[in-house]
Amino acid sequence: MIIDTYFNQIASKDDSLTSLNTAFAMEGAFINIPKKKVADKPIEIMYFSTGSEAALMVQPRNLIIVGENSHVQIIERHQSLNENPVLTNSVTEIFAQKRAIVDYYKIQNDNSEANLIDNTYVSQQQESHAYVHTFSFGGNLTRNNLNFYHFGERLTSTLNGISILNDKQHVDHYTLVNHATPNCESFQDYKGIFSDRSTGVFNGKVLVEKEAQKTNAFQKSNNILLSDKATINAKPQLEIFADDVKCSHGCTVGQLDETAMFYMQSRGIPQKEAKALLMYAFSNAVIESIKIPELKQRITKIIAMKLGVNLGFDL
After folding, report:
1. Of 19, 58, 116, 218, which is most buried with the most CB atoms under 10 A?
2. Distances (CA, A) of 18 to 115, 293, 314
3. Is 61 in a helix, a strand, or coil?
4. What is the pLDDT of residues 130-156, one digit of tens each?
């Protein structure tokens, strides 16, 4: 069976929580897109916990196979229906075959008692394109482990993320792109806005092996702190063993531009709206990468709610 061929083939055998999921997984999604097929509409994976238990741990397991020259868009969302504590230990394996296109969106906007540990493993073959967009807005503690493995030439990996946190929320992004073949590209762009006592972590690693000549790899993490109590820990990493590559990484941490704030207020824009517009503009590069118009509108509304304003325009 196709499941036996692919299940647990790229998931880490050394990660304890991934192994726990493998041992106890009893639910999840299986998506198989055959060769030369384009999914007419985005596929949405939704996990609902009813909260009938005092506390709950769930371990969903997803297996996604996208055949040669095929294209799929997938939206993933976790949602608790009441305030009882829940821990989700999720594992997703994605296989992108030759010239496949995978456009994957993770919407993390759960309630304040929800905790999520998400391990995603992506295997890419020749000339495939894999995009994973992670939007972290809600939940108590969220850990995203995103791992890309290259098994062919002339492929592209794109990892984008927006985190907007408040209260005592904690979001941790760990990314790994393993460049093991020549002539491949990877792009990472993570934006974070942190207020109150929230904490953000970005630990991004690009590994370029000796055989991976002509690699282009770019990584950046840009963050804004809106409170003296908010924290961001950023650690971009490059490990390069090839000698003919173009790689860069960078990290910025700062506050809103007071000059821009003054300019907007001098033009009649109230302080709250001016602040929100600057933060929206800060996130815009990632928002523009969303290829589903309805989802782009939904993300824009969530961001407006998180910022406490009505942005007053649709995208």
Report:
1. 116
2. 16, 33, 39
3. strand
4. 999 999 998 999 999 999 999 999 999
